[in-house]
Write a structure and sequence with these properties.
The protein is of the alpha+beta class. The protein has one domain (27-94): Arc Repressor Mutant, subunit A (Orthogonal Bundle), CATH 1.10.10.10. It is built from 4 helices and 2 strands; from the N terminus they run H-H-H-H-E-E. The protein has helices spanning 3-6, 31-40, 49-56, 60-73; strands at residues 76-81, 86-90. Strands 1-2 form a two-stranded antiparallel ribbon. It is elongated.
Length: 94
């Protein structure tokens, strides 16, 4: 059988694979970042660790730690405290 009969076309080239950019996230919670979190996060209506991680380019574990610090200071309060996800609300949003 010829190649065309098998379903393969001659001269057809594959597209080069696209290069994927890696997003390097901050490992530590820096002081200037914490200050911006203190200013902006209490104004939000709904706060999750994922939202903070995406917005501020943080790892999820660091975002959780930051939210715990803000909750201890009384700037945000927990709404739902399940095992999988913690949901907070800002005290200024109320």
């Amino acid at each position: 059988m010829s190649q065309q009969a098998k379903g393969k076309a001659k001269g057809k080239k594959r597209a080069a694979p696209e290069k994927i950019e890696k997003n390097i996230k901050d490992v530590e919670l820096k002081q200037d970042l914490l200050q911006s979190l203190v200013k902006e996060v209490p104004k939000m209506k709904v706060i999750t660790p994922n939202m903070i991680g995406v917005k501020y380019n943080l790892r999820l574990s660091e975002a959780k730690k930051a939210l715990l610090q803000l909750a201890e200071k009384g700037l945000i309060k927990p709404v739902s405290d399940s095992r999988r996800i913690k949901i907070y609300t800002g005290t200024a949003a109320s």
